[in-house]
């Protein structure tokens, strides 16, 4: 028993939805495309789970944040897939893959064959047990990777209002969940082994700004140590968190955000792996010519820096999805994937964007005491990275374009003096070979009223560009 398709997308996350829309735009025929997903729902905008979904008022709920509303695109509901003849095979796990025979075998015993396979399996959340700590199955220990996790987290939060939460991890999930917990009137302590939050991206100076802001909201930080064990009550609920430094934290709930691991298991020994993911070329094609990979699972060449990287962010998932379809459908008209690394987040009334690479000398500018501020990274005499907190749409576009152009920087002190003006000036210079930089949408939700006046001013300009997205995520009123 089996089915055959021209194109199969394995994985039903953000990348799958964006690829489906691109296939339709390029004229895919009815019955040619199939999406296989372990989740029981059609692809959705995963960033909503750590932002709008966790709000205590007017929370985001499906179908409001199905792809591709995160980039001001069409909302792809199950009805949309049916109307376009795309087969959604949901709630289905593939237990084995044979890339030579071009077949996938589901746990139900069905064989699905393809001519071209797009791997969009993403990644899974790392569990505490992988670090020697048991307790992930406790009813008040939460992770956040998919819709089921988010629903569980909301239920636990609602039972803990006024109580205490311990957040394990200081990265994206930890920071965004901590903000949501505070807004849900829960006392938060964050625990992580690094010297500061967002250790993979932020410098200590940038991190200090955000940590101070979180402290002003009541968040406590315990850094330089890790979880060693839990205390449980007679019902198996966690009542305390024990840290390696000897500290004990009483708690009503725990949120764990300690990283992810790409889902490559089906293809180990069949495809070339690198950087923890599936290695692809500039066309996003794997070591098997009929197999492509996109999103978190793909390790692809970043032309701007001349090396292969695997990037864990929704922007990369969206853009690699669009590009892989163009590569497959119109290979002669499509060049290699030329991606500018982009990361962003929005928590409380704060909003930042980062482009490029965080290597080399760092130059700071702006008002880090409460106004808009930013940083540049300069390596080998060139601008390679840019960060901005509290910018306008135009300012974010300027730092993106400047980073893409990699202008020469001869004097770091002069760069500091010019500040944001440097990126603006560079971005406005006409260049014969430059192409538009797709800044991308930032589907994070503002979570509360801004504390600083400059945010209100920036918001007037920025609001128009994100209003549609915020509305799509289920917001009924703005909080600028």
Automatic annotation (TrEMBL):
> Does the record's keyword annotation contain NAD?
yes
Residue stretches making up the Monodehydroascorbate reductase 3-like C-terminal domain: 340-423
One of the record's GO cellular component terms: cytoplasm
Cofactor requirement:
FAD
Superkingdom per UniProt? Eukaryota
Q: Where are the transmembrane segments?
A: 452-474
Q: Recorded GO terms, molecular function? A: monodehydroascorbate reductase (NADH) activity
Q: Which UniProt keywords apply?
A: FAD, Flavoprotein, Membrane, NAD, Oxidoreductase, Redox-active center, Transmembrane, Transmembrane helix
Q: Does the keyword Cell membrane apply?
A: no
The enzyme's E.C. designation: 1.6.5.4
What sequence ranges are listed for the domain FAD/NAD(P)-binding? 7-321
> Which PANTHER family does the record cross-reference, listed alphabetically?
APOPTOSIS-INDUCING FACTOR 1 (PTHR43557), RIESKE DOMAIN-CONTAINING PROTEIN-RELATED (PTHR43557:SF2)
What is stated as this protein's family in its record? Belongs to the FAD-dependent oxidoreductase family.
Name this polypeptide is given: monodehydroascorbate reductase (NADH)
Q: What is the lineage of its organism?
A: Eukaryota, Viridiplantae, Streptophyta, Embryophyta, Tracheophyta
């Amino acid at each position: 028993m089996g089915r055959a398709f021209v194109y199969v997308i394995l994985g039903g996350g953000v990348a799958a939805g964006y690829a489906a829309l691109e296939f339709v735009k390029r004229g895919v025929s009815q019955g040619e495309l199939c999406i296989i997903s372990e989740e029981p729902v059609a692809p959705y905008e995963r960033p909503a789970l750590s932002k709008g979904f966790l709000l205590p008022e007017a929370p985001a709920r499906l179908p409001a944040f199905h792809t591709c509303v995160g980039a001001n695109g069409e909302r792809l509901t199950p009805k949309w897939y049916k109307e376009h003849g795309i087969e959604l095979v949901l709630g289905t796990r593939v237990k084995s893959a044979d890339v030579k025979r071009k077949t996938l075998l589901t746990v139900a015993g069905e064989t699905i064959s393809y001519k071209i396979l797009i791997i969009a399996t993403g990644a899974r959340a790392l569990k505490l047990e992988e670090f020697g700590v048991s307790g992930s199955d406790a009813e008040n220990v939460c992770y956040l990777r998919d819709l089921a996790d988010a629903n569980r987290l909301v239920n636990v939060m609602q039972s803990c209002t006024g109580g205490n939460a311990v957040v394990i991890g200081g990265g994206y999930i930890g920071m965004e969940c901590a903000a949501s917990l505070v807004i849900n009137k829960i006392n938060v302590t964050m625990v992580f082994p690094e010297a500061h939050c967002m250790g993979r991206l932020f410098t200590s100076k940038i991190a200090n700004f955000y940590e101070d802001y979180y402290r002003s909201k009541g968040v406590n930080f315990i850094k330089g140590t890790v979880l060693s064990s839990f205390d449980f009550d007679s019902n198996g609920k966690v009542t305390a968190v024990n840290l390696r430094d000897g500290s004990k934290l009483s708690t009503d709930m725990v949120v764990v955000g300690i990283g992810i691991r790409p889902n490559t298991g089906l293809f180990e020994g069949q495809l070339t792996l690198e950087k923890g993911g599936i290695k692809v070329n500039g066309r996003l094609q794997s070591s098997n010519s009929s197999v492509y990979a996109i999103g978190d699972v793909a390790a692809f060449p970043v032309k701007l820096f001349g090396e292969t990287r695997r990037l864990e962010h929704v922007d990369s998932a969206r853009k690699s999805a669009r590009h892989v379809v163009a590569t497959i459908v119109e290979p002669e008209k499509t060049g290699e994937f030329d991606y500018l690394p982009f990361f962003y987040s929005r928590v409380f009334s704060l909003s930042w964007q980062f482009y490029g690479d965080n290597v080399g000398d760092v130059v700071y500018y702006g008002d880090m005491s409460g106004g808009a501020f930013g940083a540049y990274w300069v390596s080998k005499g060139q601008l390679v990275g840019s960060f901005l907190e509290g910018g306008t749409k135009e300012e974010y576009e300027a730092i993106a374009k400047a980073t893409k152009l990699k202008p020469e920087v001869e004097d770091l002190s002069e760069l500091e003096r010019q500040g944001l003006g440097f990126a603006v000036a560079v971005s406005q210079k006409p260049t014969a070979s430059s192409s538009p930089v797709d800044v991308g949408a930032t589907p994070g939700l503002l979570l509360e009223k801004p504390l600083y006046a400059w945010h209100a001013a920036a918001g007037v300009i920025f609001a128009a560009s994100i209003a549609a997205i915020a509305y799509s995520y289920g917001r009924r009123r703005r909080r600028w």
